[in-house]
Amino acid sequence: MSLEGALAVHRFGLGARAGEIASASNDPKAWLLAQLGPADQPTPVLPGSALLRTGQVVADEREFHAQEKLLRAQRKNGQVDDEALKALNKTRYDKIQGELAARFALGFKTERPFAERLVWFWTNHFGVSSANGDCTPYLGSFEREVIRPNIAGKFETMVVAAMRHPAMLYYLNNVQSIGPNSPVGLRSKRGLNENLGRELMELFTLGVDGGYTQSDVIAMAKLLTGFGVDNDGNDTHPISDDGFRFYANRHEPSDVVLRGKTYKSGEEGTIAAITDLARDPSTAHHIAVKFATAFLSDKPTPGMIRRLEENFKQTGGDLRALAETAISDPHAFAPGLVKVRSPVEYVTAAYRLLDIPKAGMKPDQATGLVRSAMGVTRLMGEFPMSAPSPKGWPLESDAWSGPDAVLTRIEWARQIGQRIPPAADVVALAAQGLGPLMSEMTSTGILRASSKAEAVALLIASPEFQRR
Description:
Blueprint: H1 3-12, H2 20-25, H3 28-33, H4 54-76, H5 82-109, H6 113-126, H7 139-147, H8 155-164, H9 166-171, H10 183-188, H11 195-204, H12 214-224, E1 227-229, E2 244-246, E3 256-258, E4 261-263, H13 267-279, H14 281-295, H15 302-315, H16 319-328, H17 343-354, H18 363-380, H19 403-417, H20 426-434, H21 440-448, H22 452-461
Antiparallel strand pairs: 1-2, 3-4
Pfam families: DUF1800
InterPro entries: DUF1800
């Protein structure tokens, strides 16, 4: 096992499964490159769960809200009690949990961990979150249909897909944004909601210093009016597969000037504006800084950023080329584990090393372990697609290395150590998990541990296992 192989597995992957460091050691860069392409799709793991296309989620949500309205009216008249409403809400909650459990389970077992890390990065970049309840049922399909097919495609394709998806349209309130001079605006006196236009430029493309004004925010918000979810309640038309619908009667009818360029009103003009933002040099810089921070260093050097930025510009935002540039950086395989794993990364790394859930395990035991991991990451302060703001979860180590966070990890490592089978060879497990990255202190601690449970706890809680 080589040091570069171990760094490939930990720095760019999700932590080692048995034999993974050895596989990567032959040619670490080739091992990573072979993983690039559309990401794998998760499969259901919770009993009765199904991963639905966005259009089906829209249809289910329409049915849910109709049923909820009916039950509330019946409860008011004494025809049903609270249990009927609770049962309805549980059905909806179970679908959401099923999506997230499938995502966790894929991370534990995937043989393309670099691709999965890229999925996690781009999903977090676009920042949709369960902080907005209306958005929550769509989070799973957002990642499966917007992010996974495009992690090695063009950035502009991913941005356009994100701006059209119900998760984004609900999360940043664009479904409520009405062109003031549109037929609906003139009739209802409702107006613009600037949230999506602002975050599109500030967070998703140009960056906060990317050269735009409040007038540009308003212009982008006008262009985005009419971008809505294919659900009009009483409509009888078939819901589109992607759940998107352009409502011309809500769209601001006049052309707008955005950053000095005139865009025609209508869906086509809006797509053109989004595409131009995705191709802008400021976007190249913004994405380069975030990508370098996520994969290379909390404080990326100017050289790291410049190389990624130039690649983004030269390739027109080719995300496969961007990933290749990151793993070709002179610092990509520099010794030392420089970043603290986030809670989801940390728990996933432990599950991968300990091969949890094990093959052949009874379904209820396996799903229980997946649910347990989900609960632990929430306790540690991070849960996928539930960040408190559109900025997403932090990329820097400081967010995950406070004293309370470290104590929580140590306690969890102690608990998971107690589950280790009596016949387990912890020394061999540590070698498989860390290879040349294992410190002498950790190695000595494992050898001197009073029990296998203590040895596993020392391994999982070790500084090198908590970093990548």
